[in-house]
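Person: Please work through this fold.
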Amino acid sequence: MTEQFGAWYGISYYPELMPNAFTRVPDSPVPPPGRFGSAVIPVADAFMIAMFSKPPSGTLRTTWVTPSTYWMTLATFLGAVVIAGLLLSGLIGSVTTISLVGVAICLLFAVGAGAVAVVGNCQRRSG
């Protein structure tokens, strides 16, 4: 079916010649994390499990963080911090118990996503 679709539209499908830029990682083993990277790996692993995105090896200590995961967690971190700040400032409504619960949830997302982004950044700097 894929060959027929590709032939119909003149599209060739050669995954070995054109890797996906969003999921491409080096062929080499993951470099050992630094001191700070080692400290945040348990938080990053817990966040990945909570997001139903557990790596095949079970830990980011031995699995590369893909570019798409890195940029998505960086955006999630920044978005969660901005939303938490807006909720606390009262710019998007009065500060109530519900908004404080929202702040707590945003900060949990910020900590988890930030940990994955830190691990991905450490991997790219040393790899």
